[in-house]
Amino acid sequence: MAGSTTRTAIDRIERPWGDRTPYTRGERWPTRVDTQLAGGVTEADVDRWVPAASLLHSNGDAMDIAVKDETIVGVRGRGADRVNAGRLGPKDLYGWQANNSADRLTRPLVRRGGELVESDWDTAMDAIVDRCRALISDPDHGPEAIGFYTSGQLYLEEYYTLGVIARAGIGTPHLDGNTRLCTATAAEALKESFGSDGQPGSYSDVDHTDTIALFGHNVAATQTVLWMRILDRLDGPTPPRLICVDPRRTAVAERADIHLAPRPGTNLALMNGLLHEIIRNHWYEPDFVTDHTVGFADLARTAADYPPARVADICGIDAGDLMDAAELIGTTDRLLSTVLQGFYQSHQATAAAVQVNNIHLLRAMLGRPGCGVLQMNGQPTAQNTRECGANGDLPGFRNWANEDHVHELAELWDVSVDRIPHDGPPTHAMEIFRLAETGSVRLLWISATNPAVSLPELARIRDILGDEELFVVAQDLFRTETAELADVVLPAATWGEKTGTFTNADRTVHLAEKAVDPPGAARADLDIFVDFAARMDFRDQHGRPLIRWADPEGAFRAWQRCSAGRPCDYTGFSYEFLRAAGGTQWPLPAGSSAGTERLYVDRRFPTDADECETFGKDIADGTPVSPSDYRARDPHGRALLKAATYSQPREVPSEAYPFSLITGRTLYHFHTRTKTGRAPELQAAAPEVWVQVNPDDARTLEIEEGQMLEIINTRSRVHARARIGDVRPGVLFLPFHYGYWDVDDSAGHDRAANELTPTDWDPASKQPIFKTSVAALRKAPR
Ligand SMILES: Nc1nc2c(c(=O)[nH]1)N[C@H]1C(S)=C(S)[C@@H](COP(=O)(O)OP(=O)(O)OC[C@H]3O[C@@H](n4cnc5c(=O)[nH]c(N)nc54)[C@H](O)[C@@H]3O)O[C@H]1N2
Ligand SMILES: Nc1nc2c(c(=O)[nH]1)N[C@H]1C(S)=C(S)[C@@H](COP(=O)(O)OP(=O)(O)OC[C@H]3O[C@@H](n4cnc5c(=O)[nH]c(N)nc54)[C@H](O)[C@@H]3O)O[C@H]1N2
Ligand SMILES: [Mo]
């Protein structure tokens, strides 16, 4: 474990958001440069500063990495960048120490006689290649026996390369990212409403807005720098009003003018209630609705069934609070909304997220300063997984059901159209694991994700990954819980050790450059994929290598050609451009010099049948709309208003399991803690798992603060210490960060939240439902 860091300013564990720099509406957010360096190192000691951006959330905070004696010794925010104006959050200030951790993987591991043993690249790669070839040529299997499960934490260049390998090299439909657990619903909601993925809004909307509504988004903990920007507006002379929708009293809720704390899983009813009031009070823009949308009559009909009293009853909230929120949202001049996991991982995820888009469409709150929807991303590079088609879509936001789009790719890659699987939607992650369980997927290559802690129903996931019939490749920095179950472990370089680009939640692209060499024989993920393609000898129709690039810049150029003319057009970028300009928002077509602040300024949406990324689905039950049905009602550039009725969650509290169980995050840790658990300050700030319990429930069960509790349901049990307060009655909150790599578990498996979560997903986005299950609670037996 790395030594501890010195404070260069105030203690950012105690005060995560630092000092305020208040500003007023329409002003530029003031600069404040945050720095953190290793103990004893001063800025004068630093040999060089290497530009990068944050890889521990989706905010895309620009920073420079401090290098001394060829080692990373700290970070400093970039004051000139549009995203953070110099600020960094606690995870970024301290998390870099994980790079230097003594337990990094430095050599490939292969399983021999049941044990993982150190090996070399030739042995490890040949083992993978031999297995792939054998499966592809086996008449009982073929390319579909191979699956890839990747990440929202690699770089654009790596996803694009992996996508081409999977789709045009191997020809398997089984490629998805952990973005399925993360922002599949964001993508689906954007596609369903606007025709294509792509964030309409911009972080600069915070500077101009009058009202900010956060739907299931604990931004104070999860995008700390975006919250700093909001806090600075709140402390300025023209503070925006704030609405928070979250069953917990989070730091966001504490600052909110209106806090709605619905029962978990009732978001859609709440949203329909807001729409009911907006429509009944004529708080919408009839001309915009007529000229630029389709579906209003249907939406109005659905919303009419959700009067405040009924919604209050379903959601367990006060009808007056709901009406106040509706009036604020319905009458404000500028509205900025954000949506995240409280919606995306809850019951009726897509249907609820789409209603946020509907509010903005009804009120014409798009495409001008201060007005925007941020269907947020979570992971740093999730946007690129989606753009590059490593997420179960086709690259460049292309529509797998549109033969012309598939032809474009075939031409670009110079392969036959039939090589690219497109006779159905690409396989979603939960289905890939199901196919591994049933034995039809026989090789699963997992990169930059730790499903043995992050997927639901972990006992089942361990069984699948541990099955001898399944050949598992794990590509990671550390011996994670997943790596422990793998047949081959590939040691990867990470942030700071490789070059590439990535795109944050408001479409801002950054270039992150290599600062130091990776440890030992660890290699950049791009190099690993390129090496695999060469060993497999993938060729195009003219006999040329399928992957004709060997470095990040070459991969970036190949991607640029793929993005040309699409909504995410990157043709105006280059590494040189990014070095000079810093963070810049796509689309940036060739020849343009400034990024695109907001989409849909011209009120034209990419919904035309020839253009759209999807023909859409029923947002409630997931039934796809057929191409002919879509074409028959081609919206021709108008946005779609889609409605859905509330249904009860699959699991509701009962006598045996009286609590709703929700899961999520703490400010100090990132996911399965492979990085933040190795940063001493962050680990010390949140060393072990806890469960949040309402004070009334604690009183009834005679539970005291800090007491060890047992959370039980039909799937498993988890032990966690009580943290009493700040959650609505009848609800338990468990952070999902705590797996087993740093505890002596002896197969006890009793602390990961996902021991308890169900194998269940949203029918439209296929995103797992991590936030609507049930449990019983009792004091742990001694
Ligand atoms: N510190 C930190 N920051 C991170 C990450 C991290 O691990 N740690 N991860 C990054 C990633 S990948 C992601 S996806 C984002 C996630 O960022 P967030 O979505 O902000 O984080 P979560 O804690 O998962 O969930 C947000 C809130 O949803 C609420 N919630 C639960 N159920 C419901 C419900 O039914 N309805 C409503 N309205 N709310 C509900 C929870 O109480 C919680 O406060 O954070 C990113 N940033
Ligand atoms: N119960 C519950 N479960 C959840 C959630 C929840 O709210 N509740 N949230 C879900 C969400 S939104 C997400 S995003 C997922 C996250 O789940 P995971 O993706 O499984 O979590 P991470 O710990 O980020 O795993 C990333 C892995 O990639 C490795 N890594 C980092 N950088 C690199 C790199 O450059 N190359 C390679 N090869 N490896 C690298 C890290 O060491 C780590 O092991 O969890 C999901 N699971
Ligand atoms: Mo995520």
From TrEMBL:
Domain of life of the source: Bacteria
Positions of the 4Fe-4S Mo/W bis-MGD-type domain: 47-103
SUPFAM superfamilies: ADC-like, Formate dehydrogenase/DMSO reductase, domains 1-3
InterPro entries for this protein: Asp_de-COase-like_dom_sf, CT_Nitrate-R-NapA-like, MoPterin_dinucl-bd_dom, Mopterin_OxRdtase, Mopterin_OxRdtase_4Fe-4S_dom, Mopterin_OxRdtase_prok_CS, Prok_molybdopt-oxidoreductase
One Pfam family here: Molybdopterin
Obligatory cofactor(s): [4Fe-4S] cluster; Mo-bis(molybdopterin guanine dinucleotide)
Keywords of the record: 4Fe-4S, Iron, Iron-sulfur, Metal-binding, Molybdenum, Nitrate assimilation, Oxidoreductase
Molecular function, one GO term: molybdopterin cofactor binding
GO biological process per UniProt: nitrate assimilation
Stored PROSITE patterns: 4FE4S_MOW_BIS_MGD, MOLYBDOPTERIN_PROK_2
Family of this protein: Belongs to the prokaryotic molybdopterin-containing oxidoreductase family. NasA/NapA/NarB subfamily.
Name by which UniProt lists this protein: Putative nitrate reductase
